Amino acid sequence: MAEKVRVGIIGAGEAGEHHARGYERLKDIVDVVAVCDLEEEKAKDLTDRLGAKKFYRDYHRILDDRTIHAVDIMLPTHLHARVAVEAAGRRKHILCEKPMAISSAECQRMIDAAKMANVILMPVHNQIFFPSHKRAKEIIDSGEIGIPQLYRTHRINSLVPPVECWRGRPDESGGVLMESGIHRVYTSEYLMGRINRVVSVVKKSDERSGDLDTVCAILVFESGALGVFDFGVGVGGGFFSEDCTTIFGSKGLIHVNGCEYPFFEEVPRLKINTQEGWRSETIEDEDYSNSFTGLIENFVKSIKGKAKPMVTGEDAKHIIEIIEQIVRAEASVQA
Ligand SMILES: NC(=O)c1ccc[n+]([C@@H]2O[C@H](COP(=O)([O-])OP(=O)(O)OC[C@H]3O[C@@H](n4cnc5c(N)ncnc54)[C@H](O)[C@@H]3O)[C@@H](O)[C@H]2O)c1
Asked: pTM (2 decimals)?
């Protein structure tokens, strides 16, 4: 495809703000030509900002536009599968926000529809494009810390999503672990390889969350390495929040000091310890929104046949299955 990829945005809320930063930086290869949101003002604002020509309240108008090559779905999670399946039916390539859907069964429907239509389906696992995570992966792959053996990751968020918002309603969000803990789960697979098994203890700590909001899970990686993942929403008090990851290898360790809620405010975000001692790395241009630039670039280049999607429907379905296993706590205990 010689021309620029023409995208229609479906859902112009908070995620739309992040993706807009990416589209602004990638004007040479992609044009946002239409924006849809039930709230017309939001659609119009994003249309003006991105220089798109049209805005709608009904997403079918985007699906009906034959000049549009791809859709970027940023709707509340329970709507992802329905809209993605319809989009595939109209031969649109699909970028779909995380979580891919609220269940692995819905993910499978999306995968089948995309295969049938021969279109790209790329779920938004943006944090694997976050510069510190990319650098940590580079260091692991270089062998500098030896064989990764033990892994620790956590995400603690004091803020409980209100029930007035879809985020606070598990039947629309998939639950708080699906909505927000998912970032740590897919990043774990990116850094450490496939997760084969989980053992978990889950409980509800905060009545307001309406959901299992506190999780301790052991991750068993295909490589044989073990991981610990803890997650909490509504704990910590005040605005205290944390997300950090440490990879312990046979010859050293890497500590990634979070990307959404850095526990330690100071830079650098990356600390490495080997026999040579400690060193720190500061990564340039490490704004959260920038992770979406790399992701959108990968999606657009995949449509043009110049790259392969870094995240496939199957990858994302597997992550949803892991979360389903954690929540079921089958091998485990419901505290
Ligand atoms: N990757 C990330 O870091 C990240 C960040 C934020 C949100 N998300 C994900 O993005 C998705 C959207 O989240 P958000 O924070 O933008 O939510 P939001 O509530 O801010 O925005 C969703 C928008 O969808 C619109 N909408 C709802 N139903 C619609 C319909 N039928 N047709 C057209 N528009 C409709 C709403 O009016 C709203 O503006 C969720 O799946 C969320 O998990 C991901």
From this structure: 0.96
